[in-house]
Each structure stands twice: as C-alpha cells, then as structure tokens.
C-alpha cells in the first residue's frame, strides 16, 4: 500500500484543515460527561483550580511537566502505577529529542555521559546464533553524525527507565514532590506534585474547567479524590484512559504483530558480545528459535528479547522463566550460567493515530502514545511524544499567561497530528523493511500470519485447541528448517542465492534503519501557529531510507543550527548554537536579522508590537564573521531605547562553510521570526517595504490567533 493509501486508512480524519464539531451534552464512552462552551483567556482567580493536570508519568508526561514548570505554569501529574517500571522499553533518543533535552538544564549531556560508548551500539547484527555465523551487519552511524554540524547534540542509546530517573531528578530540582497515596491530605493541589498510585476514573468537563476523579488505594480501601483543572493532558500511554473517557477513537492498522518481551540480565553474555560482536540489535534466525535481541547495556549485561507470539494456540503460560531461559540459550548457541529473567510481557504492535488530539474547547489534550501508537522500528514512538510535549508546552503557557486565547491550543493538533500520521507511515515502512530479512531467508512473516489466521479463524478452527497448537508448531518447525546450515551456505545453490540477496539488501539500505535525519530534524508544520510561505511545498512521502537533513528556513521548520559567537563584553569568546538563543524558561520569540538599516527598523517595529501584544521578543543581530567591529555600539544606537537584543557573529568551521543566510537559502535583507519551540513562525525573504508596524501586527495576530 502506497503512502496516500496508508494515509487514507486514517479515514475522514485526514484533511488539510482540522474539522471541529460540536459535542453533545453527554458522552456515551465510559464515564465522560462533557458540556462544551467557548471560554476566553485563562483567569487565575481560584487557587482551588489547578491550571494543568497531566495524567501519565512516562517520559512524555514528565518532559511536559518540566517544560511547563520552567515556563512558570503550575501543574501536577497523576500516575496510576505505585512505582516506576524497570523494564527498559524505548531506548533510542533521536537528534531532535536530544535538542529538547539539551535545553533541560543539560539533560542531553547527562545522557551522553551515562550511555554506553557508541561503538558498542552502532550496529545491527544478523546471525544464526549469537555465537554462530554472522549473516551480515549494518553500521547505522556515519562520520557526520559525530561532527555536530546540523545539531549541537548527537543521538543516544539510553533505556527508558534510566531516562525517567533523570527526569524525576530534574523535577525534584524544580521543587516537585513525588507523593504516595498514604502521604496525602485532602488539600487542593497547588501544583508541583507527582501523585503515584492514582488512576483517573472519570472526567467531567463543564464551563471553564475539567473535573477529574482519581481513585487510589489508602489504608486498604479505594478512595476517590476530585481534582479541578483548566487543562487536562493525557500522556497515559497506548491504552490511554483519558482518550477512552473522552470518546476519542484511533484510526489506522491494528495488530500488525503480537510479541513476547523478555527482560533479562546476563553479564557473561554482555561481556562476550562486547568483546566479539558489539551491537544494539541482534536478529537471530535458526532452526530452533527466532528472535530479536535488544542490547540495552552490554557492560551491565541488560537485554530484552522479542519473540513472535501466536495466541490463542500459545499463551503467556508457555513463556515461563525457565522456558524463556531455554529459548535464550538456543538463540545464544552456547551455555550461560548467569541468565536472570526479570520480566515477561506480551504486547501488540499497532499503527494508529487518534482522530483528534484536542477535545472539548481545547481543554482535553492527548500527547505521546495516548495520541499515536507506532511500530518500534526507527524509535519514533517516544521521540514523537517528546516533541509533542515541546510543541504543546509554550502554547499552554501562552494561554495561561493571557498572551493568546484558547484557540492557540488547537494549533497543537493542526501541527502535530500530520507529523504523527507521517511518522506512523514511516514506522510501518521500516517495520516492513525489517521483515524483508526473514522473507529473503525463506521465512515470509506474512505467510506465518496467514497460516496462524487460517488455523484460528478458518478451516483449522474446527480442530481441538491442542491439535491446533500441534499443527501450528509443526508448520513453523518446517519453516525454520530452511535456516539449517546444510541449506544456508555458499555451497548450496538456493542458500547461496539467498545469502547474496541478503547482502544486497544490507548494501542498498533496504533493511531496518535506525536513523532518519531528514525526518528527525527536517519535519515541518504546514499550518498552525505560523504564517506559511505561498511557495512552500508539502513534504513528500517517506522513502524508508536514510536521507540527509537539509537546513531550511521555511515557516514551520526547525530553526537551522549554526554555532555563533556572542559579542557582548562579558561573553566575547562564548560559542552557542542558534537554538540556544531561545531561553526555554519564558514564552519568548526570536527575530533574527542582519545589521542593515531596514532590518533594524523592522526589529524596532517588532519590539513595539510585541509590547502591545504582551509577548516577549528578543532581537538577534547576526553579524558576518569578518565585520563585527563596532557591532554593539551600532545595535545599541539603532534599537534604542529597547534593550532586548543580542549581537552574535557566525562561527564558521572553515572558509568553505555556508554563511547563515546562504544556509537558510535567503539574502541578508530578510528576517526570521522563531517561536519558543525553535520552529520558524514567519520569515521575510527580503526587506519589508510597507509599514513594518502593520506587518508585525499582522504576523503576531496570525501566530497567536488574536
């Protein structure tokens, strides 16, 4: 199915512009009772009403709570689990997410210091066993990935539970309290609390608030607690309670694959792989078992084994710790004495996106896995969620602070939902690429799934369950026989042909990919809190291949990275990224100009209009490397009496490097206005000949929806 066909699978929700419909006075889904009426700016007049309540304390909810707290917005978090999971789960953090973390008081740098050395995880290895013949390997890191030319940070391999520990520490540094049910009183929430063991069971949205009922176990009894908030954000995962209570449906492909995930420790295995064949993922195919091993940390010997799962013929009882140990040994190819199975979980792979991300007059919002469920191929799940939070935080802050009306919140859906649909398609495409390897070896997963479907729902369904299981096992055993060393070798005509096709698959980049720089850094919002250029073209369909990121100043794009040198007296030798010119702790826009007379006039107009709109703007005067003499004096004179500006100079790596304006494919007569989330809101490709005051009023009105 092509890209457009995949997109149409999301039904009527695929439209260039969002569809808003009125909701009835009550909802038939769960306990949700919603009465929607339009409301204006947030008024912080009632201390008993919490500005923002976040449900779900995974990476997305925690990142959102940190971003909001840094922006001065009171929020609290509910988490239904009594403690945080130690299952590694997601582990690849892409460039854009690391840029978000870079702004969270150096979180990206902490991750880079704590993660395994990159040489231990840069490869995917394909083999018949972990100690047997290697069928091929793919190195997913290229020299430019370490040069920090397109980004101030690099990608990372860091288990989710370790990331959560660091995020919790960041919250505690912001004076957040981590609370257990037994330590609570009945006082209203003031913001700054993370409540463990609290499950949302009911939402009632009326007037200007959302009433949330949370259930928790206290002194052996379940107790309900009511919380009133102005904005409710569901970051509660793929099985989101908030999504279900709000009656929001998912669209896309269900049940792509069922799997069992086995979390285990083995320092002996870790040490062997570290010395002999280090990698991040190991795809293992032999006559006794098939699985994918995720090496979360070779030094610590921490792994997760993923194996296909075929219920109802198979049940979770078939994967006892002892059975899993035996399967691990079959995939390893030799004895290990220190295997410690920690956890065994079934899970289902889906490719779905919520039909809406924002509900009920912009007061109930979904983010992360609550809004979209991807195959893990390419690691887009957690990363897309983190970028959801980054897009949403400044908009919530703008609304709560009275800078923008509630309609600014709907631009979150307008911008992020098309990205989620695109990333879903890319993840599915990458998953299909992963399946190309077993298919080349004679084990087409679609055939296996069809056989399973026939036995479950077709002619095989008349057989007793025990016989169904025996038939399924027998067919799979015959299929795996194609992986025998007798067949799969260079001397066998069929085996040699399959191995040659496999090598071609790896060389052409047609197997599972890890990095997608063009999509990671180059995604662009086409409409929303921005003014699109008339000549901008939509992003093409995903290719499933790695493509280089090309810097762009098109509205909706992430601001390109370039190292610049600050020219103030106290920081004359300080180098920072252009992305660091936005503070992260205030709703502030950045206007980038060259030191030209008309551009200074535009900057003064922007500062005047921003004051009228009660929004913060900082002007960045970006000087060429060789013309910085007298920069501060000139800018001070041109912008007086305004002091919200900074002079910086390009820090080109070589004389052959592009200048800033060339990299942005603009002339220095233009200007770029950047949002608090580092995405470009508006640009002028050339100088503004009309009244700059009127132009900036038009710009801020369109962006802030006022």
Automatic annotation (TrEMBL):
Keywords: FAD, Flavoprotein
A biological process term (GO) from this entry: ubiquinone biosynthetic process
Species of the source: Salix dunnii
Name this polypeptide is given: FAD-binding domain-containing protein
GO cellular component: mitochondrion
Domain (FAD-binding): residue spans on this chain: 51-420
Gene3D superfamilies in the record: 3.40.30.120, D-Amino Acid Oxidase, subunit A, domain 2, FAD/NAD(P)-binding domain
InterPro entries with a match to the protein in the record: FAD-bd, FAD/NAD-bd_sf, RIFMO-like
Top-level taxon in the UniProt lineage: Eukaryota
Classification via Pfam families: FAD_binding_3 (PF01494), Rng_hyd_C (PF21274)
Gene Ontology molecular function: any one: oxidoreductase activity, acting on paired donors, with incorporation or reduction of molecular oxygen, NAD(P)H as one donor, and incorporation of one atom of oxygen
